[in-house]
Amino acid sequence: MTTSNDRAVVLASGGMDSATAAYEAQARGYDELYLLHTSYGQNTEQREFECARALADHVDAADFCHVETSHLQQIGGSSLTDDEMDVAEADTDSDEIPSSYVPFRNANLLSMAVSYAEANDCTAVFIGAHSEDFSGYPDCRPAFFEAFQQVVDVGTKPDTDISLVAPFVEWSKTDIAERGLELGVAYEDTWSCYRSDEPACGACDACAFRLQSFQTLGEKDPIEYEQRPDYSD
């Protein structure tokens, strides 16, 4: 099999990190992007799907693949998928694994992304995980991605060469927002809130980190919020 060095899969969650990762992939010379979006029963799955689809249009994606992964909801264990669990209030200083952690989700998503990449002769899979993720989510840590790269190398065909790329793994959310603004990312078509489709709550961890990044940069987040607390340092 001949792979194409300008093709990459991007895990597109609908959020600002994965949107920035898609633009970053283009900036690195990957002109043909294959976007993979999954709905797994998360609270805001419809809005996330709409944003991921909009991203595909913004980057003129070569393909957009939407996969239902309801087994993650059936397995449970996360406030994003279990109606009996409340999404916690924001605590940007906590190092504890939050209730929003979906058990081993990234391994599930990356497995599908690698399958998608191998089927389409892509040479890279981009994921938008960053340093503030891995402080709470074990499947966002650099060691996890390094280990998963070994799985990719061993578990694909001998002539397949796919690199797992987490360009922001050592970056803060603010670093990502700054890079995205440089690249012209359409942040108005991204969604981060764990609780609501419209407007964003402004009070969960995802909203807090997002608002904090824009506030630190002195920029206004273009999406609507129920409340906009000041999270700047």
From TrEMBL:
Keywords: ATP-binding, Ligase, Metal-binding, Nucleotide-binding, Zinc. Coiled coil: none annotated. ATP binds at A12, S13, G14, G15, M16, D17, S18, A19, T20, A21, A22. Its cofactor is Zn(2+). Its EC number is 6.3.4.20. It catalyses: 7-carboxy-7-carbaguanine + NH4(+) + 2 ATP = 7-cyano-7-carbaguanine + 2 AMP + 2 diphosphate + 2 H(+). The keyword Ligase applies. It comes from the Archaea. Binds 1 zinc ion per subunit. One of its GO terms (molecular function) is zinc ion binding. Zn(2+) binds at C193, C201, C204, C207. Pathway: Purine metabolism; 7-cyano-7-deazaguanine biosynthesis. Catalyzes the ATP-dependent conversion of 7-carboxy-7-deazaguanine (CDG) to 7-cyano-7-deazaguanine (preQ(0)). Belongs to the QueC family. This is 7-cyano-7-deazaguanine synthase.
